[in-house]
Amino acid sequence: MWEQVKDKIKALMENDKSGHGIEHVERVFMTAMDLAEAENADKQVVGLAALLHDVDDYKIFGLEAAKNLPNARRIMRECNIDDAMQAKVCEIISTMGYSKALKGIRPQTLEGKIVSDADMLDVMGAQSILRSLTYQLAQGGSSSFDRSIFPDDEVTYDTYMTAKTASNGFVKHFFDKLLKLQSMLFTQAAKKEGKIRHEFMLSFLREWFREERAPEWNEYLERYLLRHKTAA
Predict the structure, then answer these.
(1) Which element (helix H / strand E) includes 145?
(2) Which residues contact 231 (CB under 8 A, 6 or more apart)?
(3) Separation between Cα atoms, residue 57 and residue 90, nearest integer Å
(4) What is Dmax (Cα atoms) for the chain?
C-alpha cells in the first residue's frame, strides 16, 4: 500500500518548490513510524496520515483544498482504502499544522499527535533551515537581513499567514514559528529529538548574528527565549 500511495503523491507534487514535496513526506513518514513503534500506536493510520498530510496543504493547493482534502480523499479511494480508515486519516490531517494550532486546533488521538510531532520535527533543525529558505525564495521573498527590523513579539493566525514574504522574512520565521515548536510536541520521543534540533537552530542564529556583527539581535534572541520559556 505504501508504495502505491507514494507514487500518487510523487505524481501530484513532482514540481513542488516549497519544501513540501516527496522528500519531506518520506522524512515525516519515517519519523512517524519510529514514533508509532515507541508509542505502540496504530501504524497503518499513522503511516497513511503521514504520507498524505501535505497533499492538500494550503501553501500549495489553497485554503479550500486544505479545508476539504480532495487530494487525500482521491488518493485513498484510488488505493482502495476503506471508509473507516479514510475518516481517521482525514481527521488527523484536518487538525495538523502550526497555523491551525494558532487557532487552538490540535490533534486529539495518539496517532494524530504522532503525525503532528513527526511533521513538526521536520520543521526543526538543519532540514528546517534549508526548507524555510527554499520556501521564502519560492514565494518571492529574500534572504537578506535588515538588522533594523525586529519581529513582532506575538504571533496570531492572521499575522502569521501574511508574514512569510515580509521584510526579514527568513529570520522572522524563526521567531514566528520555528523556535516555538519544541513546546508544542506531544510524545516523549519527539520531545527528546526536538530538544536537539531546537538547540541546533539556536546555534545557527547565534552564529549568524555574530557573523553579521549584530549583537543586538543576539540580545533580542536571549530576551525572546526568556519570554517564551523555550530555552533548554
Answers:
(1) none
(2) 202, 225
(3) 13
(4) 58
C-alpha cell at 228: 517564551
Tell me whether residue 147 is exposed, middle or buried, using C-beta atoms within 10 angstroms of its C-beta: 0 to 12, 13 to 18, 19 or more: middle
Cell reading at 137: 525564495
For helices 126-138 and 169-176, what crossing angle results, to 10°?
Answer: 130
Percent of the chain with pLDDT over 90: 61
Crossing angle for the helix pair 110-121 and 22-39, to the nearest 10 degrees: 130
In terms of pLDDT, which residue wins out, 154 or 123?
123
- The residues of the chain that CATH labels 1.10.472.50 are 1-110
Q: What is the C-alpha separation between 160 and 128, in angstroms, rounded?
A: 17
What type of residue sits at position 131? R
* Mean of pLDDT values over 151-167: 70
Query: pTM of the predicted model, to two decimals?
Result: 0.89
CB atoms under 10 Å from CB of 1, counted, come to 12
How many Cβ atoms sit within 10 Å of the Cβ of residue 157? 13
CATH homologous superfamily of domain 1-110? HD-domain/PDEase-like (1.10.472.50)
Q: Which CATH architecture has domain 123-232?
A: Up-down Bundle (1.20)
